[in-house]
Write a structure and sequence with these properties.
419 residues; six-stranded mixed beta sheet; 10% strand; globular
Length: 419
């Protein structure tokens, strides 16, 4: 069995790297993705990983069990960096990087406590939280939507899911942000060092809350994770901590970026924003299209666990590839006119949540938050417009998101959105 690409690629004579120091690339990486995707050659990133950018190729790689996200498979000559290696040094194994059969067991246990039905039951509460934030925003003529909604909402929702008391919510955002920054493969030592106390903060806080829930279970996700079992097989203490941390780092930063990137895309495509305002039922399809158009997670990496062949290109065990999720989402072989934002496409056409065994566990929750926020914003603030035409982006590469998104809400900002 071999992994093959859709074109007869050959190794590039010179690497065409992702240059994350290039302001133009950070502001709009999609022209570079197009260049890579349409090149007759395969290219390497600056750290030597082969880059896949076509939808069919990326999908095949994500589904191939011989390509692992576990850093233990990385060639020892390459430096291990990022969240996986950090948590591995602290002896905390993320499901995000686990291989089968460990991943299969962890996923089965987590799925019991994190089902789409359980997430859908949160819709009224998420809507209540969003409306309260919009009420606060309406008191100001101009507001940064990242600080007002996109950043706090995912943390609030995860905290509510886990049963964290509201008085403690504020301490989780900086912890989650610090760990999320090391998802970048190019995270520097200072960034890595800042994440260590954040991990320990999670562990110390939840150690106490876990003990409380063991003696007094409640109707929350933490109690469900503690109780989750399959024929006597339960999450170990370290696996439980890892699951909690994963919920925050995967469900906070990524959803924050979905809300920010999606709102910016709507404000730059007024016709699409008007269509959403006129037809609230479009919110589901709109969220899928916004995920495709500007994915909050741009890439994911995989390492060969054995020798593979990619169109004649030999991959040795320990050699890595980059799966360009955002590049694949705009592949014209898969989506018609992919650089156009069309909310009515009506079905998921993207790899924003990955695929295969590591498909995002929290995808239903991210979708729910996107649907509520995009719908309520569109109807509550019909005259909303950008106050800053070039909002700044964070210096992340793996996670693409805005530092701020300042908007003018308009004269009719106080009008309550219909229920």
């Amino acid at each position: 069995m071999t992994l093959t690409t859709t074109a007869q690629h050959k190794p590039a004579a010179a690497p065409l790297a992702f240059d994350t120091t290039d302001a133009g690339f950070v502001g709009d990486p999609y022209p570079r993705y197009t260049e890579l995707r349409e090149s007759p050659d395969l290219h390497r990133s600056r750290d030597g990983l082969w880059v896949l950018t076509r939808h069919a190729d990326v999908l095949t790689a994500l589904r191939d069990p011989r390509l692992s996200s576990n850093p233990r498979h990385v060639d020892p000559s390459r430096e291990r960096r990022g969240a996986a290696s950090l948590l591995g040094d602290l002896d905390i194994q993320l499901m995000l990087t686990a291989d089968a059969p460990d991943h299969t067991r962890l996923r089965r246990l987590a799925n019991k406590a994190f089902t789409p039905r359980a997430v859908e039951a949160l819709r009224p509460r998420v809507t209540e939280l969003v409306d309260a934030m919009l009420d606060e925003a309406a008191a100001h003529g101009e507001v940064d939507l990242m600080a007002a909604i996109a950043e706090p909402l995912p943390v609030m929702v995860i905290c509510e899911l886990l049963g964290v008391p509201a008085a403690d919510w504020d301490q989780f955002k900086p912890w989650s942000t610090a760990i999320g920054r090391v998802l970048d493969a190019e995270a520097d030592p200072e960034t890595m060092n800042e994440a260590v106390p954040a991990v320990m903060g999670f562990v110390q806080y939840f150690a106490g809350l876990i003990e409380e829930r063991r003696s007094d279970p409640r109707a929350d996700l933490l109690s469900a994770l503690i109780a989750a079992g399959d024929e006597g097989d339960k999450l170990s203490e370290r696996e439980l901590f890892a699951m909690i941390i994963l919920l925050f780092i995967a469900g906070h930063e990524t959803t924050t970026n979905l809300l920010g990137n999606g709102t910016l895309a709507l404000l730059r495509h007024r016709g699409q924003l008007d269509a959403l305002r006129a037809d609230p039922s479009l919110a589901v399809a709109a969220t899928e299209e916004l995920l495709r158009y500007d994915a909050p997670v741009q890439i994911t990496a995989r390492t060969a666990t054995e020798a593979l062949e990619i169109n004649g290109l030999s991959l040795d065990a320990g050699e890595g590839i980059i799966c360009g999720l955002a590049a694949a989402n705009r592949d014209p072989r898969h989506v018609d006119e992919p650089d156009e934002l069309r909310l009515e496409r009506g079905r998921p056409t993207h790899l924003a949540f990955g695929n295969g065994m590591h498909h995002c566990l929290g995808a239903p929750l991210a979708r729910l938050e996107g649907q509520v926020v995009f719908d309520r914003l569109a109807r509550r603030f019909p005259a909303m417009e950008l106050a800053d035409e070039r909002p700044p982006y964070r210096d992340h590469f793996v996670l693409r998101g805005l530092v701020s998104l300042t908007v003018a809400l308009g004269d009719d900002a106080g009008t309550q959105a219909p229920a």
